[in-house]
């Protein structure tokens, strides 16, 4: 009994093996063509089995697919393997099939301004070496680019040229010139790009007159034109009813949110002190001015009455004139005679006024 | 949210100083902590440094309020004091007016206070002085502008004491 079981088991095992082998091996009349780089297997066998199948060839199709896949995987198992981070990986060969283009061929770009000029003049690019021998550093350096051979901004000694201002910074001048060249180059590059893509540069977008521009574009162009003068638009008049453009002032800068709290406190206390100290002074000034105005009005009224009666008021008028020229600086502005009179005046003025404080008050005002 | 500029600080201090005078420096310089004024959406907030640091983590459009709102700057950059500032102004008020219980309700609903409704008033209150109005129970009601005490005795017809400004805030 057991022996029989064992025999049976062995036979079964043998049968299983044969079946597996059968499954793995596939018989094809024509060998498949493999492009393992693209994981591609091409079957050139004529599909007679499919034709015979009739209207629903699912089973046949599935069998065909299984067979071909099996063959492809058999091929993959034969590739050299290597270990990458605890995984066994097969290294695929280079793909042999050439795949078609995904996108259409790019259109030829329009020539840049230099290329047009070179073509016109017949200038051909001269072949130059990339590396040049640099005496100063004693090594081969690039002709242009990073750490180039003759970089005039990196010189440590510059002789001041004959006609130049001795206080001018020649090093800064060279660095500035380089920055300007770089900026100009960048601008030209962007302009070439804009021409290639038939777009406008955003800085000059809408500035070229087309005849079909919107009100906002025209307004913007007008503002730019107004500012594009030597005085940056300071002396450009506006039309009678034109309003100032909005948002054309400087952007305000504020203190940071968490500035120095102690400094903030100090400045606020200082402000408070100034505010508190100013209050009484202003009151005195206001009071004295009020008083003086009242006195002036009285004087004016009296003068009018007197002038109606007669002309006896030369002295009075002189005094009135003097009072108006009270502060010496203002007296100086008027005719010289009055200035002299002011100096002789004070005792009389003092009598009329209520002390020197008021004069001081007016001066402060 | 940003600190106030010089100009804005001056305008605000002038307004507050009408009610508390030189005691304002006690608000600016406090012994029990660093408090500061910050402007957010045209409103001035009086906030301690600790709360300010927390509030800085909230984005501006989501931040509604912080600390105590003292008032706001109008579109023409005038400063309007709000009732929420009362807690800080009342203890430092220089001139106070106490009103009788009968007049209190009328005052709170927006009417002027007549002389008959006046309980007590600090002396030497000048005309148009900023005062803090209290109820008889020493509860601060509102800061207001007042007629003077001396002027009152001269007025024959309508003796108004606390003149209520026409708008809701003052």
TrEMBL record, chain A:
<dbReference type="InterPro" id="IPR007023">
    <property type="entry name" value="Ribosom_reg"/>
</dbReference>
<comment type="similarity">
    <text>Belongs to the RRS1 family.</text>
</comment>
<dbReference type="Pfam" id="PF04939">
    <property type="entry name" value="RRS1"/>
</dbReference>
<comment type="function">
    <text>Involved in ribosomal large subunit assembly.</text>
</comment>
<feature type="compositionally biased region" description="Basic residues">
    <location>
        <begin position="302"/>
        <end position="315"/>
    </location>
</feature>
<feature type="region of interest" description="Disordered">
    <location>
        <begin position="227"/>
        <end position="255"/>
    </location>
</feature>
<feature type="region of interest" description="Disordered">
    <location>
        <begin position="272"/>
        <end position="365"/>
    </location>
</feature>
<feature type="compositionally biased region" description="Basic and acidic residues">
    <location>
        <begin position="235"/>
        <end position="245"/>
    </location>
</feature>
<keyword id="KW-0539">Nucleus</keyword>
<keyword id="KW-0690">Ribosome biogenesis</keyword>
<protein>
    <recommendedName>
        <fullName>Ribosome biogenesis regulatory protein</fullName>
    </recommendedName>
</protein>
<feature type="compositionally biased region" description="Basic residues">
    <location>
        <begin position="350"/>
        <end position="365"/>
    </location>
</feature>
UniProtKB/TrEMBL annotation, chain B:
<dbReference type="InterPro" id="IPR036974">
    <property type="entry name" value="PUA_sf"/>
</dbReference>
<keyword id="KW-0694">RNA-binding</keyword>
<protein>
    <recommendedName>
        <fullName>60S ribosome subunit biogenesis protein NIP7 homolog</fullName>
    </recommendedName>
</protein>
<dbReference type="Pfam" id="PF17833">
    <property type="entry name" value="pre-PUA_NIP7"/>
</dbReference>
<dbReference type="InterPro" id="IPR002478">
    <property type="entry name" value="PUA"/>
</dbReference>
<keyword id="KW-0539">Nucleus</keyword>
<dbReference type="InterPro" id="IPR015947">
    <property type="entry name" value="PUA-like_sf"/>
</dbReference>
<comment type="similarity">
    <text>Belongs to the NIP7 family.</text>
</comment>
<feature type="domain" description="PUA">
    <location>
        <begin position="95"/>
        <end position="165"/>
    </location>
</feature>
<comment type="subunit">
    <text>Interacts with pre-ribosome complex.</text>
</comment>
<dbReference type="Pfam" id="PF03657">
    <property type="entry name" value="UPF0113"/>
</dbReference>
<keyword id="KW-0690">Ribosome biogenesis</keyword>
<comment type="function">
    <text>Required for proper 34S pre-rRNA processing and 60S ribosome subunit assembly.</text>
</comment>
<dbReference type="InterPro" id="IPR040598">
    <property type="entry name" value="NIP7_N"/>
</dbReference>
<dbReference type="InterPro" id="IPR055359">
    <property type="entry name" value="Nip7_N_euk"/>
</dbReference>
<dbReference type="InterPro" id="IPR005155">
    <property type="entry name" value="UPF0113_PUA"/>
</dbReference>
<dbReference type="InterPro" id="IPR016686">
    <property type="entry name" value="Ribosomal_synth_fac_NIP7"/>
</dbReference>
């Amino acid at each position: 009994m057991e022996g029989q079981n064992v025999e049976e088991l062995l036979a079964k095992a043998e049968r299983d093996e044969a079946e597996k082998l059968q499954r793995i091996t596939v018989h094809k009349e024509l060998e498949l063509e493999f492009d393992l780089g693209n994981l591609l297997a091409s079957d050139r066998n004529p599909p007679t089995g499919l034709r015979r199948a009739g209207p629903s060839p699912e089973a046949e199709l599935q069998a065909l697919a299984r067979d071909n896949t099996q063959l492809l995987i058999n091929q993959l198992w034969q590739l050299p393997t290597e270990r990458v981070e605890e995984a066994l990986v097969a290294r695929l060969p280079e793909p042999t099939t050439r795949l078609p283009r995904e996108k259409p061929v790019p259109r030829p770009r329009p020539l840049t301004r230099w290329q047009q000029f070179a073509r016109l003049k017949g200038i051909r690019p001269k072949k130059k070496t990339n590396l040049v021998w640099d005496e100063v550093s004693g090594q081969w350096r690039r002709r242009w680019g990073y750490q180039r051979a003759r970089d005039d901004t990196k010189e440590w000694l510059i002789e001041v040229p004959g006609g130049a201002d001795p206080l001018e910074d020649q090093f800064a001048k060279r660095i500035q010139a380089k920055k300007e060249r770089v900026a100009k180059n960048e601008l030209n590059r962007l302009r070439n790009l804009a021409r290639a893509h038939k777009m406008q540069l955003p800085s000059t977008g809408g500035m070229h007159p087309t005849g079909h521009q919107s009100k906002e574009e025209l307004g913007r162009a007008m503002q730019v034109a107004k500012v594009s003068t030597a005085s940056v638009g300071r002396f450009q008049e506006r039309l009678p009813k034109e309003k100032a453009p909005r948002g054309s002032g400087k952007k305000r800068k504020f203190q940071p949110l968490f500035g120095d709290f102690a400094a903030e406190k100090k400045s606020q206390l200082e402000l408070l002190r100034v505010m508190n100290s100013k209050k009484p002074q202003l009151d005195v000034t206001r009071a004295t001015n009020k008083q003086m105005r009242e006195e002036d009005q009285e004087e004016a009224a009296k003068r009018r009455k007197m002038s109606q009666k007669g002309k006896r008021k030369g002295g009075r008028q002189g005094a009135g004139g003097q009072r108006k020229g009270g502060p010496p600086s203002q007296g100086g502005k008027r005719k010289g005679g009055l200035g002299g009179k002011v100096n002789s005046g004070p005792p009389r003025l003092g009598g009329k006024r209520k002390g020197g404080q008021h004069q001081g008050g007016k001066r402060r005002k | 949210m940003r600190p106030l500029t010089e100009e804005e600080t001056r305008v605000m201090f002038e307004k507050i100083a009408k009610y508390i005078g030189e005691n304002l420096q006690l608000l600016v310089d406090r012994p029990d902590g660093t408090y500061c004024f910050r402007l957010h959406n045209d409103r001035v907030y009086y906030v301690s440094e600790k709360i300010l640091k927390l509030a800085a983590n909230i984005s501006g459009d989501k931040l509604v309020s912080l600390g105590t709102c003292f008032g706001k700057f109008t579109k023409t950059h005038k400063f309007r004091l709000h009732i929420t500032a009362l807690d800080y102004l009342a203890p430092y008020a220089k001139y106070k007016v106490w009103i009788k219980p009968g007049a209190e309700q009328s005052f709170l609903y927006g009417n002027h206070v007549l002389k008959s409704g006046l309980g007590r008033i600090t002396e030497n209150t000048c005309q148009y002085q900023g005062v803090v109005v209290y109820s008889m129970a020493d509860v601060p009601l509102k800061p207001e502008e007042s007629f003077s005490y001396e002027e009152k005795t001269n007025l024959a017809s309508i003796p108004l004491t606390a003149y209520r400004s026409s708008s809701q805030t003052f």
